[in-house]
């Protein structure tokens, strides 16, 4: 069993495609790492494996080792360089240690990243089970599993395997299946589909750790004002109706898109503040803003303070068992 080194498992689910599960998974993983935890990401969206793209490691390949596959490192455990505010004083995140982050995806196994995966259900099921048994994870505090939309073969295979090899409560001998984070967007059509995922969790006794409402607004890159392009609040109402926690709303931030697509460090207009933190910076970055680790550049993103709050709430709800 490839999960023996994993302490906690969190699923990222949605009944709707295109709501940003992989984006949410990526940012939860980065935030957990920034909080000092050792993290793994397993991408079982077999027909649309996007996790390698999000972490900027599309060209990487997994290594075969005795007993299974060695996942790809996004970054190792290390201390990030100090960050300074515009007045030159070090802020609260300066020089802190981040946990190692690694991931596994079918995207690493494809001969070409544009190859189509045209598989019937049984082959998908076998691949999911192989990912759960043959990946040689290092010691992980948290394993995040990014899933495809809906409640299809991959989900059934995933849960059948996990329920046999994990514990529903914290255990010293088995990984703890902590539960699921549900992702939606504010529109009614998305809410309708995601409600089915919540019912799926109820029927399979998967605990819902919280609902995230993604794409709830658009952050203007010039003035940083957030406009609710796709409305807002539908996810919170749905969470309340199902009596599950609502973690919060996440706007679309073009700076995060640029970070993922081109590796450019986020920059914001003077005076931009999120949760009291000044995100505008006057210091010069090397070259065109592409220098540095992905996780280091993410600290400058407006979405990081939001996810830092989400993760702290999740860990508190889980009893902060680290």
Question: Could you explain the architecture of this structure?
Answer:
With 322 residues, this protein is α/β, with parallel strands linked by helices. It has a domain at 6-212 and 230-246: Rossmann fold (3-Layer(aba) Sandwich). The protein is built from nine helices and 15 strands. It has helices at residues 21-34, 51-54, 121-134, 153-165, 188-203, 234-242, 254-262, 294-298, 304-317, and strands at 6-13, 39-43, 63-65, 68-70, 72-75, 78-79, 97-98, 101-105, 140-146, 176-184, 208-219, 226-227, 246-252, 273-274, 277-278. The strands form four sheets. Strands 1, 2, 5, 8, 9, 10, 11, 12 and 13 form a nine-stranded mixed beta sheet that branches. Strand 3 and strand 4 (68-70) form a beta hairpin. The longest helix is centred in the middle third of the chain and has 16 residues, at 188-203. The chain is globular. Residues 85-93 have low confidence and may be disordered.
Query: Radius of gyration over alpha carbons?
Result: 19 Å
Number of strands: 15
Average pLDDT number: 87
Looking at the structure, the CATH topology of the domain at 6-212 and 230-246 is: Rossmann fold
Strand portion: 15-25%
* Weakly predicted, low-confidence segments: 85-93
CATH class categorisation of the domain at 6-212 and 230-246: Alpha Beta
- Strand pairing plus helix content: what structural class? alpha/beta
Put simply, the count of helices is: 9
Task: Please summarize the sheet with the most strands.
Answer: 9 strands, mixed
Q: CATH H level of the domain at 6-212 and 230-246: which superfamily? A: P-loop containing nucleotide triphosphate hydrolases
Elements, N to C (H/E): EHEHEEEEEEHEHEHEEHEHEEHH
The span between the termini is 22 Å
Question: Could you say what the CATH architecture of the domain at 6-212 and 230-246 is?
Answer: 3-Layer(aba) Sandwich
Give the proportion of residues in helices. Answer: 25-40%
Keywords: 4Fe-4S, ATP-binding, Cytoplasm, Hydrolase, Iron, Iron-sulfur, Metal-binding, Nucleotide-binding
Organism: Cucurbitaria berberidis CBS 394.84
Binding site for ATP: 15-22
GO molecular function: 4 iron, 4 sulfur cluster binding; ATP binding; ATP-dependent FeS chaperone activity; hydrolase activity; metal ion binding
């Amino acid at each position: 069993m490839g999960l023996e080194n994993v302490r906690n498992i969190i699923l990222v689910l949605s009944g709707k495609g295109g709501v940003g599960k992989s984006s949410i998974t990526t940012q939860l993983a980065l935030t957990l790492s920034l909080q000092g935890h050792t993290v793994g990401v397993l991408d079982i969206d077999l027909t649309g494996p996007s996790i390698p793209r999000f972490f900027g490691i599309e060209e990487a390949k997994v290594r075969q080792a005795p007993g299974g596959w060695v996942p790809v490192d996004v970054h190792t455990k290390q201390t990030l360089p100090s960050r300074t505010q515009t007045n030159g004083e070090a802020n609260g995140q300066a020089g802190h240690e981040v946990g190692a982050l690694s991931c596994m995806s079918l995207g690493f196994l494809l001969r070409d990243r544009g190859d189509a995966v045209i598989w019937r259900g049984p082959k998908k099921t076998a691949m999911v089970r192989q990912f759960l048994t043959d990946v040689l994870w290092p010691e992980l505090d948290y394993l995040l599993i990014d899933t495809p939309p809906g409640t299809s073969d991959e989900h059934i295979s995933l849960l059948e395997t996990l329920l046999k090899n994990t514990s529903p409560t914290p255990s010293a001998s088995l990984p703890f299946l902590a539960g699921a984070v549900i992702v939606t967007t504010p529109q009614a059509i998305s809410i309708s589909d995601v409600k089915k995922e919540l019912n799926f969790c109820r029927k399979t006794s998967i605990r819902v750790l919280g609902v995230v409402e993604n794409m709830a607004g658009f952050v203007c890159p010039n003035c940083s004002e957030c406009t609710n392009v796709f409305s807002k609040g539908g996810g919170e109402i749905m969470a309340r109706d199902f009596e599950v926690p609502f973690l919060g709303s996440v706007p679309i931030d073009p700076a995060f898109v640029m970070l993922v697509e081109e590796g450019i460090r986020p920059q914001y207009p003077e005076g931009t503040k999120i949760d009291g933190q000044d995100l505008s910076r006057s210091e010069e970055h090397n070259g065109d803003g592409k220098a540095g680790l992905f996780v280091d550049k993410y600290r400058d993103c407006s979405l990081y303070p939001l996810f830092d709050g989400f993760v702290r709430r999740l860990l508190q709800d889980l009893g902060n068992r680290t």
